[in-house]
Amino acid sequence: MSLVEERMKEHAAVLEATAALIPDIEKAGALFKGALASGHKILFCGNGGSAADSQHLAAEIVGRFQKERRAFPAVALTVDTSILTAVGNDYGFDTVFRRQVQALGDAGDILVAISTSGNSRNVLEAIDEAHEKGLKVIGMTAYGGGKMKDACDICLAVPAKVTARAQEMHIMIGHILCEIAEKDL
């Protein structure tokens, strides 16, 4: 079997196992839709590939996913280098997302926290701040969920031990959430 065939087989197996998350994905979609329908925003955070996913999904919400509609408010907390470096320098890297949730988050908003390990300190700090401010938290993690499993309102722990396979499911789940948000709005 070639490397390409092996990776596609792994992807298919993780996709099949991720079907167990359908009820929680539907709950997360309802949270997304409810928040956006009532004028609230979605905040995203994560590191590395999860930071890129945060940007990607925020863009789908602000711009559009598949349907022409009004713009919805969403912010990737991963993109402002001045905020990230100033807060990182002055307060430490663990607080770069927490400070932004503190400044930008309002009760009724949603924080989408993405960390394949489920243990990223700066993401966990953002989750704590989100709860203090009355935001709902949707987590996207990999196998087991790490510390985020118990910290999120809904934790979508993709049953994958390989980071790349989990990230592939995260973007699929994110796209599904965007589609649910657009439906009938």
Structural class: alpha/beta
Rg, Å, rounded = 16 Å
CATH fold title: Rossmann fold
Give me the CATH superfamily.
Glucose-6-phosphate isomerase like protein, domain 1
The tally of helices reads: 8
Q: Overall pLDDT, averaged? A: 96
Strand order of the largest sheet: 2-1-3-4-5
Unreliable runs: none
Order of helices and strands: HHEHEHHEHEHEH
CATH architecture: 3-Layer(aba) Sandwich
Please provide a written account of the structure:
This protein has 185 residues and is an alpha/beta fold. The protein has a single domain (3-182), classed as Glucose-6-phosphate isomerase like protein, domain 1 (Rossmann fold). The protein is built from eight helices and five strands; from the N terminus they run ααβαβααβαβαβα. It has a five-stranded parallel β-sheet, with helices on both faces. The longest helix has 20 residues, at 163-182. It is globular and about 50 Å long. The termini are far apart.
Can you summarize this structure?
By secondary structure, the chain is α/β, with parallel strands linked by helices.
